[in-house]
Each structure stands twice: as structure tokens, then as C-alpha cells.
Design brief:
The chain is mainly α and about 325 residues long. It has one domain. The protein is about 60% helix and about 0% strand. It has 15 helices and 2 strands. A two-stranded parallel ribbon has the order 1-2. Helix 3 runs antiparallel to helix 4, helix 4 crosses helix 10 and helix 9 crosses helix 10. The radius of gyration is 21 Å and the shape is globular.
């Protein structure tokens, strides 16, 4: 199923093999909130367990300690990236049935960790849905090729700064109430305060390895995994590194990734079924398997089957040592 197929589908006229329309089928796809919070709890459990393991094991010798610190930082960043994927689910009001509580819980347990107000991010993300593949897309990591330089920039916060500047550009164009601006500032301070408190506690206890691991996880590896993931979801295999896609439309690309342990976490919260999310953005990721099953009973089954790939395969296809001159 190509991107063009998705956006041209009339959901009222799309029928499965028993004659049920997608619009009728869609009415029963309520989010499974228990599943959402189970997956959020699992992400938190992995992060806490990694930090606790480094504190408890205390590897003997400097080489072993450095290796353990780097490994915990890498894995913590990986699972932190998984955790923050659920901010996206909250952006679509799918972590709690009450919209106000949806945002409160997200800011407290998810986006607050990195100092982001979900209501503020919602402005950015919905523009991404409206303008996907155009020069106006608000989430444009996929505009750049995955090169060695891109990887280094992702690890050194350069990509993060570019993303933040783009988000600020988008949100500044929207009228904001004073209360919204105050909430955004409060959540930013909350995220900063929580991280400073945690790091301060570790330093007070002289747990320097754990402190270094957390700094690397949140400032180096989490941004890296986040940036690479979005490129693999949206960058076309035909995209060229010598074209500036802020000036020339990139075009719409979405993918389906095969399931497995790595895909479950790296593409968590339904990101490994990203093609289906852009097909119907309001559906909870907990019901995307149902959407997939419905489409497999339609005339688009073969096209959907052909859209499956793996993260490893796409990375190999997209990676190039350097951008074209």
C-alpha cells in the first residue's frame, strides 16, 4: 500500500470481504488504556532496572566500570526513547479517556521527564500530519540522509537544537493563552528540576558512574535513537542527499515494520505500524492490529503485505557514509 493509496481511500466506501465499511468498523475501536499503561510501566521498569543494576553491581576496575557505564547509558537512552513515544499517544488523547487527565498524566509521567508540555507538542505534531512530505512539515528529521555526520550530530545534541528551534517556530505562530505559556514554563522547570534532583542525589552518594550514565542517556543516546527512528519511518529510498527538502517537497512515505523484541521497543506505541497511524491518526496504537486485520480483508491486502520491512533493512538502504556533494 503506497502513501498515495492511503490518502485516496474513502473510509466510508472501503469495505472488507463481508461488506462492512471501515467507518462502521472504526466505531468499535476504543483505546485499551490498561495496555497503554502496561507498556508505559514496562518502559519505566527497564529504565529503573538499568540504573539500579549499575548502582548494585559496581564493576571492579576502571575499564569494566567505563564499559558498564556506557552500556547502561546506551540501553537507558534506548528505553527512554521508547517511553517518550507514548507522548505521541497522549498527543492523540489516547492514554486516558478524559482529555484533561490525559494531558496531566502525560506531563507527569512522560513528557515532564524531558520538560515538554504535551499540549504544546500537540500543535507541532498535528502540523506534521497535515503537512507530511511537504516543505512545511514540522517534524522534518527525515529531510536529511542518514550519514556519518547525521549520526554524530544526533549524538552531540546538534539535531536536538534543530528540532527545538523548528518546534518553537511552529508554536510561536499559534495564539497562546497566558495560562498555556505558564504551564509550558512550569513543565520545563519540572523536567529540569527532577533531573537535577536525581543527579544531585547520585553525586551526593558518590555514585558518579550512574550520574554519567543518566546524563549520556538523556542528552546523547535518547536523541540519537529518536532521530534515527523518524528517518526510517518517513524518508523515501529515492530521496537524494543533494536536495534541500525544505525547498523541494520530499513526498509522503510511511512504512510497516515487522514485529519482534527490538521492534516492540524501538517502534513502540504503534510506531512500527506507522503507515496505519497515518491512515487513521486518531486510532489508539492498541487497536492498530485490528485496523491491520481489517485492511487484510480488503482489496488492499496484497499492497499492505508488500509494505512490510525491517528496521535493519531500511537502515542499510538509507545509510550512506557522506552526503552527495
Amino acid at each position: 500500500m503506497s502513501a498515495a493509496d492511503i490518502y485516496s481511500l474513502n473510509k466510508e466506501q472501503l469495505l472488507d470481504d463481508s461488506g462492512v465499511s471501515y467507518k462502521t468498523f472504526r466505531r468499535g475501536l476504543d483505546a485499551r488504556f490498561a495496555t497503554v499503561w502496561r507498556d508505559i510501566a514496562l518502559a519505566w521498569l527497564m529504565i529503573v532496572a538499568l540504573q539500579a543494576a549499575l548502582l548494585a553491581l559496581q564493576p571492579p576496575g576502571l575499564p569494566a566500570l567505563v564499559l558498564a557505564t556506557l552500556l547502561v547509558a546506551l540501553l537507558s537512552g534506548f528505553f527512554l526513547a521508547n517511553l517518550i513515544l507514548f507522548v505521541h499517544e497522549a498527543t492523540h488523547f489516547n492514554i486516558h479517556p478524559d482529555k484533561a487527565w490525559n494531558d496531566r498524566l502525560c506531563n507527569l509521567f512522560l513528557s515532564g521527564v524531558i520538560g515538554v508540555d504535551v499540549a504544546d507538542y500537540r500543535i507541532v505534531h498535528w502540523q506534521h500530519h497535515r503537512d507530511l512530505g511537504t516543505t512545511e512539515d514540522s517534524e522534518r528529521s527525515y529531510f536529511d540522509a542518514i550519514t556519518l555526520r547525521y549520526i554524530v550530530e544526533s549524538l552531540l545534541l546538534i539535531r536536538v537544537l534543530k528540532v527545538l528551534l523548528r518546534r518553537r517556530e511552529v508554536t510561536s505562530q499559534e495564539p497562546r493563552e497566558t495560562s498555556a505559556s505558564s504551564r509550558k514554563l512550569l513543565i520545563s522547570l519540572l523536567g529540569l528540576g527532577v533531573n537535577i534532583l536525581y543527579l544531585g542525589t547520585l553525586l551526593f552518594l558518590r555514585e558518579y558512574a550512574a550520574a554519567v550514565a543518566w546524563v549520556l542517556a538523556i542528552l546523547v543516546f535518547y536523541p540519537f535513537f529518536s532521530a534515527i527512528r523518524q528517518v526510517m519511518e518517513h524518508r523515501s529510498l529515492a530521496a537524494r542527499s543533494d536536495i534541500d527538502y525544505t525547498q523541494v517537497p520530499h513526498g509522503v512515505t510511511n512504512r510497516m515494520f515487522r514485529r519482534g523484541p527490538f521492534s516492540f521497543f524501538f517502534g513502540g506505541a504503534g510506531f512500527n505500524r506507522h503507515l496505519l497511524h497515518h491512515f487513521d491518526p486518531t486510532v489508539s496504537y492498541t487497536r492498530l492490529p485490528d485496523v491491520e486485520a481489517f485492511l487484510m480483508r480488503t482489496a488492499y491486502a496484497d499492497s499492505l503485505q508488500d509494505s512490510y520491512t525491517t528496521y535493519g533493512r531500511v537502515f542499510r538502504q538509507l545509510f550512506q557514509w557522506r552526503a552527495a556533494a
